[in-house]
Design brief:
Mean pLDDT of chain B: 93
Order of helices and strands of chain A: EEEEEEEEEEE
Number of helices of chain B: 0
Largest sheet of chain A: 6 strands, mixed
Shape of chain B: globular
Structural class of chain A: mainly beta
Strand content of chain A: over 45%
Shape of chain A: globular
Number of helices of chain A: 0
Largest interface: A-B, 20 and 20 residues
Radius of gyration of chain A: 13 Å
Oligomer: heterodimer
Helix content of chain B: under 10%
Low-confidence stretches of chain A: none
């Protein structure tokens, strides 16, 4: 079966760095997405990786290793507004998105 | 980025009534749109894939006669929750793929409360 695993909840301090991991087992691979979802709102697109390596976008970076079925989202210089759930999603060989359950990130002052 | 709208943003209805939710792609065309449901503190659950000009594809466990989907044009998909019951109360979100990587752009969601 298809499966995506990410931690349920993480806590970090304002100004610090946090890494949210995602491991996946899917039938085929056509890219991995990270989304941010604030409570009561719809998800917003953060990043896309299809090749191995690191993609940097401002304070956020996303890394992919296809051979390990592994990705992480790295958030630097954490701000209180970064408190949200972060969703990992993989597009399989049928171009269907398989969603992880999300990681709730709590930022403390 | 691409913009997807949903209407209404929230709705309260009596048990047994039907509710229609609209999803529109405002600045792009979408032959495919997706409908999700999200209960409090739970993950997104894909309900169905809406296909322009053809029948929707429903996920296992989702009743197609209860959740009617119509994708009448390249910019509009509708989800009708028929004979709604309190257990249907949830956050309903639509999305459509666009952009270089076909990333999903989400509507703002519709919060349905059935009394």
């Amino acid at each position: 079966g298809q499966n995506i695993d990410q931690p349920t909840e993480m806590t970090a301090t304002e100004g610090a760095i946090v890494q949210i991991n995602c491991t996946y087992q899917t039938s085929g691979f056509n890219g991995l997405f990270w989304y941010q979802q604030h409570a009561g709102e719809a998800p917003t697109f953060l990043s896309y990786n299809v090749l191995d390596g690191l993609e940097e976008k401002g304070r956020f970076s996303s890394f992919l290793s296809r051979s390990k079925g592994y990705s992480y989202l790295l958030l630097k210089e954490l701000q209180m507004k970064d408190s949200a759930s972060y969703l990992c999603a993989v597009m399989d060989s049928n171009y269907q998105l398989i969603w992880g359950a999300g990681t709730k990130l709590i930022i403390k002052p | 980025g691409a913009v997807v709208s949903q209407h209404p943003s929230w709705v309260i209805c009596k048990s047994g009534t039907s509710v229609k939710i609209e999803c529109r792609s405002l600045d792009f065309q979408a032959t495919t749109m997706f409908w999700y449901r999200q209960f409090p503190k739970q993950s997104l659950m894909l309900m169905a894939t809406s296909n322009e000009g053809s029948k929707a594809t429903y996920e296992q466990g989702v009743e197609k006669d209860k959740f009617l989907i119509n994708h009448a044009s390249l910019t509009l998909s509708t989800l009708t929750v028929t004979s709604a019951h309190p257990e249907d109360s949830s956050f309903y979100i639509c999305s459509a793929p666009s952009g270089v990587h076909n990333e999903q752009f989400f509507g703002p969601g519709t919060r349905l409360t059935v009394l």
